[in-house]
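Table S2 (text version). Query chain:
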Amino acid sequence: MSKGFHKGLKLMFLFLIYDVQVDWAYGKETCSNLFFAGEIPTLEGEFGHGTVLCNTAYAVMDSPVTKGPIWSAEYIVEENLEVAARTKREGYFYPDARLPAGYRGELADWKHSGWDRGHLSPSGDFAGLAAQQESYALSNVVPQAPGLNRGAWEGIEAAVRGLANAEGELYVVTGVLFSHERASVGPDRVMIPSGMWKAVYDPIAEGAAVYVCANTNLPDCKIVSLDVLYRWAGVDVFPSLALSIKQHIMPMPAIEESPYAASVRTEQSRANGFNWNNRHVKEVLRLLQKALGR
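Corresponding structure-token output:
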């Protein structure tokens, strides 16, 4: 066979792979099992009407106003996380064909935008490549500041997985906040959130809390109650929960430092002529802690 024939076969093979990446088979008709008590979050205001999309391991509601997700929901169990931890992290972003063109994000919207494609439901939560690939649909993605996406937000995702491993199961809803000053990216004008949040309900401890971060490269993150989130965003993430649970902040794990955040901190310390890992600095800190009786 000629070299040209082999080259043609190779190009056809690459084209088929590209097609699989773009037109990945995903989704299912119902997903009430992913919501606490089978009830989806309720949302007031202009973003309260959207399309709920069911996937294997998460559900998401997309808004025609923002051209992206408003919230995503997961039911995380320890057994699935064990498989997810053994699953190689890989995937390809693609527009969600279940949403009509002009009402969804496209790959071109992120090109040269300076924003990361930030997952609401992270691929690291999902067991197996098929479920992981579903998380790369742009219906699950918002413009996220690189410093948040690769830093504190990655740490929050790791902290929630750690809590799920410890407790055995969690209901998690992740969402976005928008300020009055609306900014967007790309020709489809995908709206940029001013903040992001991740709400957790632990059915074993019967407690709940929410991580909230500003969508900036130097994010200010805090932990609030479900009731505070409702007052900020008009979203009731777990409608069936008692008000007493919504008003109480369950103790949450500290935000774990991501490798990216650690490298940035180290580089900043070096640039300033100071390194927390320096042997002499560690000794000074040890003496200071001893003096304070800690």
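Notes on Table S2: Confidence is low (pLDDT under 50) at residues 1-25, 268-276. The first helix runs from residue 3 to 22.
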